[in-house]
Amino acid sequence: xxxxxxxxxxxxxxxxxxxxxxxxxxxxxxxxxxxxxxxxxxxxxxxxxxxxxxxxxxxxxxxxxxxxxxxxxxxxxxxxxxxxxxxxxxxxxxxxxxxxxxxxxxxxxxxxxxxxxxxxxxxxxxxxxxxxxxxxxxxxxxxxxxxxxxxxxx
Amino acid sequence: xxxxxxxxxxxxxxxxxxxxxxxxxxxxxxxxxxxxxxxxxxxxxxxxxxxxxxxxxxxxxxxxxxxxxxxxxxxxxxxxxxxxxxxxxxxxxxxxxxxxxxxxxxxxxxxxxxxxxxxxxxxxxxxxxxxxxxxxxxxxxxxxxxxxxxxxxxxxxxxxxxxxxxxxxxxxxxxxxxxxxxxxxxxxxxxxxxxxxxxxxxxxxxxxxxxxxxxxxxxxxxxxxxxxxxxxxxxxxxxxxxxxxxxxxxxxx
Lengths: 154, 253
Ligand SMILES: Cc1cc2nc3c(=O)[nH]c(=O)nc-3n(C[C@H](O)[C@H](O)[C@H](O)COP(=O)(O)OP(=O)(O)OC[C@H]3O[C@@H](n4cnc5c(N)ncnc54)[C@H](O)[C@@H]3O)c2cc1C
Ligand code: FES
Ligand code: FES
Description:
By secondary structure, chain A is an alpha+beta fold. Chain A has helices spanning 23-29, 78-90, 100-113, 119-125, 137-153; strands at 2-8, 11-17, 48-51, 54-57, 70-72.
């Protein structure tokens, strides 16, 4: 067992971990249930969280590496989640909703890096977020709507 | 999933190297591949505190730390300018942005995956692998060697080259069925074939004034194999087309 401390959604937390634990398993143990595991093979994007402001796949980040780092999950971005969630719902882009937390975390990253993304850039940026329900077209519409809403709000 | 007893955040490269001399140890870089390997090791050695994640530009080369992520390679403006955006084009098909924000160039080069887009591009660019103990080794040589216990600290790429990469995938974000990378330097155009599915190789060097027959001839003498994604015959059939596209693109750049 090892003890690590890191900043989770703005609050310092500590956790007892095994040497081979992933960040994903630690976050779940800390009650961050927005973070889902779909594949455990780095392919689906469901486990996306932000580490020091960058979207990463928590299923593959060694927990021990998180000592002293800032981790943000959807629980820490509730206002943003409500805005983007409304766009997804409004465009019929959510069915089972399982992919939504990981997708949202990566859309927030896209909004930071490329707020005026074209459709092709949206598709390319989110290629690592699989959805087995929506067919992606409605997701793209929702993301476009969200990005223009953010632009209007400045 | 990989199992470790101890996880060491190495404080110096010397410490990492010393720990890695035991067979029961393993280096952890991006951890994207490693975690899926089902390895059982006594000690995992994490390189992320060693400052090996920088891209440095010298007068005649780029010296890239082994912990540099694929996403950093893809988005670095100096690399983009120097190599005409080839890193972004070559690496964008690899899984997804979050994946590339963690997978590293060192992990890619060390692993020598047959399917690696990264190795194919770096081979075309005639990159050098800088190892902590052994020093600089040409990637053309390193790529053919067995895995060892040295640590890659940097990758060095000479400036003044133009490169292009073409790949075919069964579906987007999957590993490639075939990759062709081409780079133009003063010595002519070098053509690399990867995902054959064996390790990438330099299929031809110093090519100039090539026509489709040249690429067909190169494909004819290159070894291809079958795997779940495609047959050797299919790879041999599409190889000349990819070579012609990559060759033309880097000649025109
Ligand atoms: C699902 C999946 C899909 C992929 N698809 C593609 C693709 O389409 N195209 C492509 O090019 N690549 C692909 N890859 C490979 C990927 O790009 C990386 O090459 C791979 O993840 C290894 O990099 P890493 O940083 O994760 O290394 P790790 O998984 O941490 O390590 C891999 C190996 O390298 C060793 N190692 C790491 N760094 C060093 C170092 N500095 N010195 C010595 N040894 C070291 C480790 O001990 C380990 O044996 C894929 C990988 C996965 C998991
Ligand atoms: S669970 Fe992490 S990418 Fe699928
Ligand atoms: S809405 Fe069901 S997986 Fe995306």
